[in-house]
Fold this sequence. Notes:
This protein has 2 domains: about 10-85, Elongation Factor Tu (Ef-tu), domain 3; about 105-195, Elongation Factor Tu (Ef-tu), domain 3, CATH 2.40.30.20. About 10% of the residues lie in helices and about 40% in strands.
Amino acid sequence: xxxxxxxxxxxxxxxxxxPAGVRLTVDIxxxxxxxxxxxxxxxxSGVCCTxxxxxxxxxxxxxxxxxxxxxxxxxxxxxxxxxxxxALRAGEPLGGHIVQGHVDGVGKIAAxxxxxxxxxxxAEVPADLRKYCVEKGSITLDGVSLxxxxxxxxxxxxxxxxxxxxxxxxxHGDVGAPLHVEVDVLAKYVENMLSQRGLTK
Length: 201
């Protein structure tokens, strides 16, 4: 489990495409903590991935066809910057909201923000996920826990503060850039429970 509070950004340093998937190597040296081990989970721009090998601050992750089908990580190239967050450890504060690292869909930037000052980020959300988006509700975009300030024409608006723009990759995306979207898991649980009682359409 994650919180959506990005701890660092890191560059992709190697990409190896294989018949069974993709091996992605990422510089995670900027991540805080006592160090990571093989088998640990790290969110790569919101995608929960497992450390397959680790050497000198560089971790290798194996991306299966399922991950490649549901995310944009298959398009990552050497030099691509990713938002990084280590899995939440027992006793640590939950400062953002509950983020699973299980991407629900891929949206895209409709109106970008300034990389230093932030601003109003508009992001198009896949049609099947819009019912989970509510004003003042939580949403995760590329691994960043955010609050929805407005909605219009299939897009959500996030008021991004300068710190978030500077600390994450959100301030560097142009119109049309893909975004991993994870909606609030609590909303999905509520929908499922109500549907079991025949209370949803």
